[in-house]
Amino acid sequence: MKEIHYVMIKSMLVVSIGLTGCVNVAPWERGNLAKPQMALDPHPLQSEIQSHNYSSREAAPSHKSSTGGGGCGCY
Amino acid sequence: MIKKIRRVFFIALLLSLVATTTMAEHLDEISSACTLTTLDGAPAHNLKELKGKVIYMDFWASWCPPCVKSFPFLNELNHDLKDKGLQVIGINLDEKVSDAQEFLANHPVDFSIVADPSKQCAKGFEVMAMPTSYLIDRKGNIRHIHRGFRTGETEELRALIAQLVMENP
Amino acid sequence: MPKHHGSYHSTSDLKESPIKPKKTLQALTSAALVLPGLLLTSAHAADKDRINFQYSRYQEGERNLFGVPNNLKPISADVLHGSGSLSLTDRTKFFYSYTQDTWSGATPITIAPLAANSNNPVLRDNPFGGTTIVGASPLINRTVQLDHDLNPLRQDPRTGQITGQDSRSVMVLSSASPETRNQGNFGLSREWNEAAVNVGGGFSMERDYKSSFGSIGGRLDFNQKLTSLKFGSGYTHSEIGAILDHDASPYITKTAYARQIERKGGSEILRGDRQDWTANIGLTQILTKSALVDVSVGYTHSNGFMENPYKVMSVIFIDPVALNNNLATPISGDMRALIEQRPNIRNQLAFNTKYIQYIAPFDAALHLNYKFTLDDWGVNTNTFDANWVQPFGNEWTFTPRIRYYSQDAASFYQPYLFSRQTVQMNKFDAGKLPDNFSSDHRLAGFGALSGGATLNRRLSKGVNLEAGFEYYTRASAMQIGGGGGNSFADFDYYVASAALKLDMEGVDTSRPGAGNSSHNQHSAAHHQHRIPPAGIMFGHMLDKPGDFMMGYRLMLGRADGHMMHGSHKVSDPVIVEQGCSDTSPCRFTPTYMNMRMHMLDIMYAPTKWWNVMLMPTFMDMDMNLRRLNKAPPPVPGVHEHQGIAGHETGAVGDTYFSSLIKLISIPGHRVHMNLGFSAPTGKVDIELRRMAKVDGGLIHFGMQLGSGTWDFMPSLTYTGEKNRWSWGAQVSGVKRLEEKNKSGYRLGDLAQATTWGGYDLTRWLIASVRGAYTWQGAVQRDFDSFNARIGPMDFPANYGGQFWDIGLGMSAVIPGGRFAGNRLGFEWIQPVRNDFNGYQLDRKGMLSATWSYRF
């Protein structure tokens, strides 16, 4: 079970890093990505409540990866 | 096997990061492929016609918050320096023209708004980020490329434009 | 884990006596697993400046006690949250947030065989026959009958006859009084074109757990921002000072922690500390015009005191000789309670993948998330969740979501333990027990399924309302790979929340001529009326129809020092004799009391002469008591206050709504009246926990959170201004509209007259001086259910009085620039003379702070 997990995770990481070279989205084609529903966290206040509640009832770590990325890609 | 693939991907990543392209330096190099239309699709400005004026060309889209923030400044520039030979052009790159039209209905502006439906202008000017503005002097040289927009940058831009306007063709 | 290993430990010889409930459980139970610093969410730096206010309520369902009668309330929490971001420069942002949770309710302290009957209902004979349940007492030192396979055996309570096997386990519950945790976070971020750096820190405090944390992180963009690499790390340091329940302590074996327990003021405090380091790295990659993926890896290393000091492990000691004889007679197991022991170190690794896809036909976005974690305690978890973010038009967004979670049990989790040794003269060999053991059901193997939705409505001018709801159910059977065998620990909860989100910048591209158009210019163009000092409520009106004003007000009040009667100090013996009643003299008196009131002001002007206002409030209070000199000695069966810990309450207070009507408005003078009402949304039935087999009863009038009645609050205000001077006066009152509230009493009416003068120190800063006279009536009628009557604060006649105060204030209006339109005010209200009804603690003053913003 653990081995499958490791392979899955590693391949996801490799694929995602690899994809960086293959993608072709021009800066002006990011209209859909800029929409609020496409944000990495569209409801940050809700996420915080949920995170807090789950952490107090479950034993999984609740780190939040730093936000950033995606979206309109504006400077 | 996996190690090899990984190495290839990392190299590809690095290459894409450091790849740079040579930037066009003069309007003439680009304007042949670039045809601007009005938002409704009718042909508009031919960039060659504008030689002799200082051109402030701003590529924008309705979904780009800094673009939207730059509009009051562009409006002001247009109002203040139009008579001195400044031409402000907002080139819309929305994929759906209706989005741009809806936006302009809510935020009307005085300066000229055109569209680039085939995106040839954007590609020709090598737009790499939204928004990007190009300052072109009276002789057609691209003097300044400004990426992004923050309200604190207006002073510097204004000074630069004023200087260009002072230059004689 | 404690330092002792393999040594002999002693335990108490007290058995089968009722355990007194523990206090201060919940807040630590949440904090011990949550590391506040690790939850930092920094808003995306490209967003507009915001301020958010949010309230949420968490409510659990009852735990399964297999039919044992119990009237303990399930766990609930009220959470108040405010946060926001502020642009200091074009590229630098400051983030801040404040959260306050108040928890209360019954929580499991251990797990025991059902046959041991540890959840003991406390019954009281009804005068009309039969019995009623008035509480429950956890019994954690018990004798359990077992067969030779160590299966617990059911015993008839009256005849003592063995009626059969019963292998079921049950959670043993204990109630707790409300506890409040406060947390503050701050952060700074700096944006470049393709990179960002952020730094943050904060603290979390509650009576028995204090944490401070810091973090740094950054982001690098590549590929024209199609790829973003993010990284961060953080550190948390926490100090635990758990006040062990004075009554429970004798029944709990804590020799393993003897070196960490400090005795202070009649209480035992278990001290520990803990450190957590965390690091994470992530990648966001745009895949197509309509899809992106986000992958991250995180590592956490924790060491120190990892236990929950209020949780105990039930250890059943069995005589090995009796076990090995070949008779069929049942064996007697001697069940004791030991504070749990967890490893000192924990390493956790988490992998998270998120995939977001735009669904064009619906203009919606599908968010899919998978998280896998593992740690060296054996707790491996998997989380799958999905959100569908669906906008409707320009104004509404509806987001349903679903989540499935599964975790494996920690290697040292056990519902309860057997130990094949007997306790000899209260000593046993700790070396024969496992190094680590915990019965905390949150370390067991289980699955959880939850579903909910969020609804967001955008009002005009950058105001958003958001409401969320979620239902969660934890089930041992839902664990991946088969059930965890602990369905007795299953429970469910729901959460409901409401939030108000304000965007501080409006984007306005109006024509040239209006200049650099934005709200800044607009509000500067308005004539800025000076608002009254911060301590005045309903003191000003909006002029322009369609204007909105949002504000936050904080009032901090304190009473401490001497006990007073009328306007004189009074000594303890006098209070004992005269402060309470003829039949029960006073035994305790308050030493201090702090009150914090948070209010959200929302004001709207439908017309030029009429405004409406809504003010939800949140109250929290804490206080402590001491025994009075010359008070009669403790009597068994009568409530006593023990130890050094005081009392806290905190939750939603009353909600005010009103209409303000402009009566006179001429240059230099304005008069308006306010017709206001108070809705009784604040609780008035908060109870103290049961102690020493005696009910706690309702907490005294001053610690209840609202009035409990509908109240009418009229006021009339006059303000004037000329050049740099401003002045005003207000008369106001509160009239209770009902005879009594849910708990049988009503607060006294109130009348106040106040007048002030202000001077403009600069164009934007005003200093003010104010005088106020307040008359307040005593509490009318009385509690209609049990109150322990231990001191003057429990008696209605000791409330109210006449008060003369002076207020000194400063307020600032930010005239232009980025923050134009924001107003801040502070006022310190100093009591000058008090004439208390009855016996009360001296008032020391109140600080009011307000912030408001006009749209």
Compile the SSE list and pairings.
The complex is a heterotrimer of chains A (75), B (169) and C (855).
Chain A: H1 2-19, H2 44-57
Chain B: H1 2-18, H2 27-31, E1 54-60, H3 65-81, E2 86-92, H4 97-106, E3 112-115, H5 120-124, E4 132-136, E5 142-147, H6 154-166
Parallel strand pairs in B: 1-2, 2-3
Antiparallel strand pairs in B: 1-4, 4-5
Chain C: E1 8-10, H1 26-33, E2 50-60, E3 76-87, E4 92-104, E5 107-113, E6 119-125, E7 131-138, E8 142-146, E9 153-155, E10 162-165, E11 169-174, E12 179-191, E13 195-206, E14 209-222, E15 227-244, E16 252-253, E17 261-264, E18 267-288, E19 291-304, E20 312-317, H2 320-324, E21 331-339, E22 345-359, E23 364-375, E24 381-392, E25 396-407, E26 417-419, E27 427-429, E28 446-459, E29 463-475, E30 491-503, H3 519-525, E31 548-566, E32 568-569, H4 572-578, E33 588-604, E34 610-615, E35 617-627, E36 647-652, E37 655-666, E38 669-679, E39 687-688, E40 697-698, E41 711-722, E42 725-736, E43 745-746, E44 750-760, E45 765-776, E46 780-781, E47 801-813, E48 822-854
Parallel strand pairs in C: 16-21, 20-26
Antiparallel strand pairs in C: 1-27, 2-3, 2-30, 3-4, 4-12, 5-11, 6-7, 8-21, 9-10, 12-13, 13-14, 14-15, 15-18, 17-18, 18-19, 19-22, 20-21, 22-23, 23-24, 24-25, 25-28, 28-29, 29-30, 31-32, 31-33, 31-48, 33-34, 33-35, 34-37, 35-36, 37-38, 38-41, 39-40, 41-42, 42-44, 43-46, 44-45, 45-47, 47-48
Total number of domains of chain C: 2
Residue windows where pLDDT falls under 50 for at least 5 positions of chain C: 12-34, 36-45, 507-527
Gross morphology of chain A is flat
Question: What is the number of helical segments of chain C per DSSP (H or I, 4+ residues)?
Answer: 4
